[in-house]
């Protein structure tokens, strides 16, 4: 699926593609499963996959469980031109056995600068504020709100509201990519894939409970007019 989606993004001229949390191996709250699935960033199989799937012009943000020595992180890698160019580790993991991250990296993309928060980081406004202070104009949020039905219903609207609050407080654009549908255990996700402008207005949102892709042209920050960077959020 990663190869298919990145091929499509490259063909569409997408500059930045955002994938959901733990997109690569699948999400889990169980420490034994996350440890078994986790990959180090120098893993040959991982780098071969990135080289094969991310060799076009599209920069991709891909969620995964990452191994660093004996520690496991819920991370998102930034892949460009077939290589991993950086990684963000979730500051506030709620997955058992995952270690909190410590760094707030930002990346340049043309005239834009972007950073990453992951899912439950949205509950802590300082995580977005740190990125804004480092120059980010865009904050990317991989999500995985596949939950038991009563929890999915409970958190769907607050997730969108958290995106709006983060945008208004930081004056940044905010975008998210969430999983959608149901799994074999009966858990569900309505999908909280969205794009929010710096005033907190939701300018685009994926269809509820449906696989979808949002494509949006971010405005030129210098000209405050025509768009120059095209971003895609994949809900899968």
TrEMBL record:
The protein's superkingdom reads: Bacteria
> What's in the keyword line of the UniProt record?
Hydrolase
Pfam families from the UniProt entry? CN_hydrolase
**Domain annotation CN hydrolase: ranges:** 1-220
Q: Does the keyword Hydrolase apply?
A: yes
Which Gene3D superfamilies does this one have?
A: Carbon-nitrogen hydrolase (3.60.110.10)
The protein in question is named: Putative amidohydrolase
């Amino acid at each position: 699926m990663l190869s298919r989606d990145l091929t499509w993004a490259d063909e569409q001229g997408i500059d930045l593609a955002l994938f959901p949390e733990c997109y690569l191996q699948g999400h889990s709250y169980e420490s034994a499963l996350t440890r078994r699935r986790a990959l180090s960033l120098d893993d040959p199989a991982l780098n071969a996959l990135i080289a094969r799937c991310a060799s076009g012009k599209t920069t991709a943000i891909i969620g995964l469980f990452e191994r660093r020595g004996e520690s496991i992180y819920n991370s998102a890698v930034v892949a460009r031109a077939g290589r991993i160019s950086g990684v963000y580790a979730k500051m506030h993991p709620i997955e058992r056995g995952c270690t909190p991250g410590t760094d707030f990296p930002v990346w340049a993309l043309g005239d834009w600068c972007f950073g990453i928060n992951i899912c439950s980081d949205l509950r802590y406004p300082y995580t977005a504020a740190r990125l804004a202070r480092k120059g980010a104009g865009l904050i990317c949020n991989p999500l995985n709100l596949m939950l038991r039905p009563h929890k999915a219903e409970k958190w769907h609207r607050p997730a969108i509201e958290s995106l709006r609050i983060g945008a208004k407080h930081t004056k940044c654009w905010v975008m998210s990519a969430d999983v959608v549908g149901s799994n074999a255990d009966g858990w569900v996700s309505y999908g909280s894939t969205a794009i929010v402008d710096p005033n907190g207005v939701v300018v685009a949102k994926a269809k509820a409970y449906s696989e979808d892709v949002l494509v949006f042209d971010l405005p030129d920050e210098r000209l405050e007019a025509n768009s120059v960077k095209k971003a895609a959020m994949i809900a899968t």
